[in-house]
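pasting for ref. prot 1 ->
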Amino acid sequence: MVKVATTPLDRTRVAVTALKLLNQTGLDGLTLRAIAKELDVKAPALYWHFKDKQALLDEMATEMMRRMNADLTAGAGPGTDWQSALSGALRGLRRHLLMYRDGAKVYSGTHFTDLSYAVPMEAHLRTLTEAGFTPGDAARAWFTAYSYTIGYVTEEQSMGPDPVKEEGGYDLAARAERLAAYPLAAAAGGEMFRDFDAGFEKGLAAVVAGIGATMLET
């Protein structure tokens, strides 16, 4: 028998519950029915708040943004070194995305349901423009680095070990065997699919350096 929820059901409560279940089921296994069961309500009750799963993902991504807001904003501000501020924000973004199984997939391509994203964006755009970027180049710089981070974590979570079971991951030996005729491509696997922390930092440094070389007015 389905119990009646004692706490009022709202969008935030559903999103928080969905994020909790995400680590157990992964994105593919996350269903409105499973969320309703966790909330002790009937599945149709969720449709009062979300017309479909994409609407739910939008709210989940927004809740993730609310939680990471302070980390993304830390370091940005007048007089701050733009490279350090930007790099710090993206490390914070990656750290938060990795807190959730398939976190980057949930976050990517969604539409935020409130303006919580505007606070870190405004802070970093101001830091960049005060460092000499035009408003247009500041926007492009922020979006380029932001996109690199989301893309990197998407691949990291797809190729790395299961964050819950702590097992699995890309079989580099099998990959190298398949690519035996292509020695450089075979050897590249160790760089691309192991030590994701170091790989992220190398890529981030290249992105930030490239932004400075191509977008900052001198």
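and prot 2 ->
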Amino acid sequence: MADMDAFRDEIARWAAGGASDTAAGLAADLGLRTAVLLEGPSDLAAVEALAAREDRDLTAEGVAVVSMGGAMSVGRFAGLLGPPGLGLRLTGLCDAREEPFYDRGWQRAGAVRDFQVCVADLEDEMIRALGPERVEEVIRSEDELRPWQTFLAQPAQHGRPREQQLRRFLSTRKGRKIRYGSLLVQALDGARPPAPLADLLAGL
């Protein structure tokens, strides 16, 4: 039985310049029809958390959600997964500042432009969707109140809007953005997810 993690690992090796004799076979075994190209693992965590929240099994639906390790890799991944490579439909999610990389990647792959753009990044979108107070509740529930207070005491944070402080805090420790990518989606409760994330999933 093909495994999505094995497919992602194979695509990563292929994108890094290695040969791939098994990517097409794995894609066929998984019944893949769509590849979702994401900049990094925190975006992957958020997409998977929202899919779980909506009781969707993306793998069973033929969707491969792929973290590329940076937007500048999008041309390579689009070529391997899209029309020139495995022939999958391409979609994705990116930060506003990375939109030109995605545009060029889609154009070079000969794919129809089909990706969502966050105003700043997905963390910014989640903070605005939840509100700063709810995000701080999540931080407290993760026993990170003391690190958060220490962060706020830094001179560089004085006078900054709370939304900007929260966004910066999520990036101050390795692995924190990934963990909160999932936690903030789970904290939505009945609230609507940010439009770029909701629209991405609705289009799959």
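The beta strands are 34-38, 63-67, 89-95, 116-118.
The two ends are 23 Å apart (CA to CA).
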